Structure prediction request, 152 residues.
Amino acid sequence: MRTVRLGLCLAVSVLSLLPLAPAAPPAVAQSTCTNTTLSGNYAYSFSGHAYLGADGTPRPGGTPVEILAVGVITFDGQGAFTGADTESTGGVIRPRSYSGSYTVNADCTGISTIDPPVGPAHTFMAIDQGGDEFYVIVTDPGAAISGVAHRQ
Prediction:
């Protein structure tokens, strides 16, 4: 028993003499996104509500109308996109085609503007590092709509 204790004390003593290596800083992902991060076709779905005033225009505090859509959007990698979807607005189903512009920041966030006749509408995006998926939220007053898109 005495030999075990002596061996243990010796091991602890030797280990305490070893220089302490500084802890490595945690790995931090590099953000290297650009407009080219979003390029090609993405399948998406979004859902939420538009809050409409008496005149039918979106406004905070208006009457909520459920909005759902499923479609495909195509990014050109240079700041423009086109898309087509089927949207349900309060249960009224309609196909749509649209176009717009986008900007991707180095931190893999971005913004987009959807042109009339579907827009104008504005969004904020968070893009995964590989650009295979992004999350989006409409940033216009009177809208509570978000969605996700996956590269096809």
